[in-house]
Amino acid sequence: MNILLLGNIILMIILDLIMSLILLGKINTYGAGMWYVYPDGADATLYFTRALGSYFVLLNNMIPLDLVITMEIAKIILSKIIEKDPLLFSEKNQ
To answer: What's this model's pTM, rounded to 2 decimal places?
Structure first.
């Protein structure tokens, strides 16, 4: 497994938990007074699990973009290395 991909997944899970815990704290602090946001009452557990899923899907969209950028950078670097390698030089293709 690519170490960058693994690091990105771990970062995504950590950010997901942090944002969900912040929402949980806001619900516990201000939930009862915000009847227009939480019309059924502020069930913190329900909103926490919904936030975990929502933030996971939201942050999951960062991974493909990051992979595309990483692959493009790797292609550029490898193409430069191949251009400079004298063992890959061919007189016939000149």
So the answer is: 0.58
Mean pLDDT computed over 18-25: 88
Structurally, the chain folds into a number of domains equal to: 1
Return the closest-CA partner of residue 52 out of 27, 25, 26, 15: 15
At residue 38, φ and ψ (nearest 5 deg) are -120, 80
Question: What is the domain range of residue 76?
Answer: 3-85
* One-character DSSP codes across 12-57: HHHHHHHHHHHHHHHHHHHGGG-TTT-TT---HHHHHHHHHHHHHH
Tell me whether residue 81 is in a domain: yes
